[in-house]
Amino acid sequence: xxxxxxxxxxxxxxxxxxxxxxxxxxxxxxxxxxxxxxxxxxxxxxxxxxxxxxxxxxxxxxxxxx
Amino acid sequence: xxxxxxxxxxxxxxxxxxxxxxxxxxxxxxxxxxxxxxxxxxxxxxxxxxxxxxxxxxxxxxxxxxxxxxxxxxxxxxxxxxxxxxxxxxxxxxxxxxxxxxxxxxxxxxxxxxxxxxxxxxxxxxxxxxxxxxxxxxxxxxxxxxxxxxxxxxxxxxxxxxxxxxxxxxxxxxxxxxxxxxxxxxxxxxxxxxxxxxxxxxxxxxxxxxxxxxxxxxxxxxxxxxxxxxxxxxxxxxxxxxxxxxxxxxxxxxxxxxxxxxxxxxxxxxxxxxxxxxxxxxxxxxxxxxxxxxxxxxxxxxxxxxxxxxxxxxxxxxxxxxxxxxxxxxxxxxxxxxxxxxxxxxxxxxxxxxxxxxxxxxxxxxxxxxxxxxxxxxxxxxxxxxxxxxxxxxxxxxxxxxxxxxxxxxxxxxxxxxxxxxxxxxxxxxxxxxxxxxxxxxxxxxxxxxxxxxxxxxxxxxxxxxxxxxxxxxxxxxxxxxxxxxxxxxxxxxxxxxxxxxxxxxxxxxxxxxxxxxxxxxxxxxxxxxxxxxxxxxxxxxxxxxxxxxxxxxxxxxxxxxxxx
Lengths: 66, 565
Ligand SMILES: Cc1cc2nc3c(=O)[nH]c(=O)nc-3n(C[C@H](O)[C@H](O)[C@H](O)COP(=O)(O)OP(=O)(O)OC[C@H]3O[C@@H](n4cnc5c(N)ncnc54)[C@H](O)[C@@H]3O)c2cc1C
Description:
The complex is a heterodimer of chains A (about 70) and B (about 575).
Chain A (H helix, E strand, L loop, with lengths): L1 E4 L9 H5 L5 E3 L6 E3 L10 H4 L6 E4 L6
Chain B lengths: L9 E11 L3 H12 L4 E4 L16 E3 L11 H12 L7 H7 L2 H10 L14 E3 L9 E3 L5 H11 L3 E3 L2 E9 L2 E9 L5 E11 L27 H8 L4 E2 L8 E3 L7 H6 L3 E3 L21 H11 L5 E4 L5 H15 L3 H8 L8 E5 L13 E2 L12 E3 L10 H20 L10 H16 L6 H15 L6 H19 L6 H26 L24 E7 L2 E7 L5
Parallel strand pairs in B: 1-2, 1-9, 2-6, 9-16
Antiparallel strand pairs in B: 3-5, 4-5, 7-8, 8-9, 10-15, 10-17, 11-14, 12-13, 13-14, 17-18
């Protein structure tokens, strides 16, 4: 959860990986698409989606933060 | 990559000025030093373009502009700031690091295209006041692209970027600080930076108190700032001060948004469960009082059964609500409206429940805790400068940027006038440092960083949170010492965890300093920041700063008289 990336829309540019201030998003060498490896360490800051050229990232709050 | 065999590449980087932390302050420091023609390295564990507290944008830019009214002058600012900090900040600092620079910084950012004028019809600034200010010091602006913009400038003028390098410790020899070591969090390469001047700017300290939603990374300020600068400087022998004053704010319930500044700045109310605007009981200015008053008031309302407490915006004009909802809240925290939507709160018509945030060491205006610096941003160790939220200077976004600018300029001056120690360190020392980092990847048995960190938060929340006592603080000391022993054998599975382990190490260092300060300071001050149940009043003999430094393994304490205007 936390960061949902629509793989179909994603162009694999890797900006979300570079921009995440917490080292949570990693480009998968096989699929060339980003993977959120540490969702429980998310700050919910939105930096990953701000420069996304495909607008394909959604931030989903876990139940306890609502 | 086999992480266990310890065969990581070694890189040695020689520069004039090393800047550790590429956030708001560090990037400005690198720019300023580079403008003097020096060779500058900007090192951050994150990607720099969007990292630190400004990663996704800030919305308030503190500025004194001399536009006419009495409050908009340096004198009025100094009077207010002195009152706010109760004299615990060296009053020679604000003129040098902030007031003399702020107009230039504003001009510079406007030239770079940062949208500062939200009143587009009149091409004018919108300014609001909060936190006891005598007037409207905060320019409301769209800071969403501020960080990438200054980052690009730094790159353009030739600052050398080292992204994703987690700095672990400073390099010190008998001449002072001569650089730092760290590792690449993706590749594992070991880095040795040697520099004539080193600037630490790794921001504030978070993740050492339990978060209300039980999500440790759901913190008020960036959860990836963990007191690196304060801990590294302290280990190197530099003075830190007033560490006992942990800060709290109000956030929307279960959500880490800063929001408070925007809400009270626009005239929002804070009400209790009975619908009363209760803050006037605690401060004559109510919602316009200093920041610490708000969690203090909420604390007592909740304790005495008048909770929950809420932001109440229902009385605001349509125009003000639009400004708040369109220009401020989602700029301050990019995900603010996602939270509202997913929670089902309508900011215009509903009360928004608030809570007291987890404790942190600050990054905002009025903070009196952190690395002790001179107006030239020098620490008490030769070769080591500091800037931004990790220092005791003018905090906040624009404050940190100005302080960073000063640190860069002064470090450059120091280098250009022949300063800087002997850049030599024995290969054995360096190898020892490398070993002590990477050994955790080979450890098979010890505890994991997240387990240690969880325990740290438990101890800090239980004994060093809101309401402290001698017995509790001594219990905390004992528990933190145990954690220190467990750290030695901690195990990490990968480089990401290795970074988290060294974050924990710095958090532990800072926590110990907080506890030591809190134990020593037998009084209460700044509301819940430091509330000793056994000494519930502020005491005259404690109207002073408490400095700590490490000398031959011993902590040396010093009390410093408050500064006058
Ligand atoms: C959501 C939010 C909104 C805010 N809004 C406002 C506002 O509107 N107005 C205002 O005045 N202030 C605001 N603030 C505060 C303001 O952003 C900070 O005061 C300011 O950014 C501090 O700058 P800094 O350079 O000291 O720290 P940061 O900008 O946080 O930079 C610290 C950097 O150090 C790096 N780092 C940390 N540890 C290490 C290490 N060991 N090795 C290498 N790198 C490391 C981090 O990755 C980070 O990039 C806000 C803060 C937040 C979180």
